[in-house]
Write a structure and sequence with these properties.
alpha+beta
Length: about 80
């Protein structure tokens, strides 16, 4: 069916302890959210598709859920850090 855009950050903030989500490269590769948090006290790294439409610094529109080069690069670096 037709999935409406939604803010994955809101969902993450409801799941993690104290709604604290420390984002990795927040302003880069916006179609993927990466960051550190705690769930039930456990340190976790979270990688999630961001379903909102985003704009790059160059003003290009990116469709939520699509993994563009910048998002793929960000996700790969974050996973290596974890």
């Amino acid at each position: 069916g037709n999935v409406k855009p939604y803010d994955m950050l809101e969902i993450i903030e409801r799941i993690v302890d104290n709604s604290e989500f420390d984002q990795f490269k927040q302003d880069y590769g916006k179609t993927i959210l990466c960051g550190y948090a705690r769930i039930d006290g456990w340190a976790v790294g979270i990688v999630a598709n961001q379903r909102l439409i985003a704009k790059t610094k160059k003003g290009e529109m990116q469709i939520g859920g699509v993994i563009y080069n910048d998002s793929a690069d960000k996700g790969a670096r974050f996973i290596m850090n974890c």
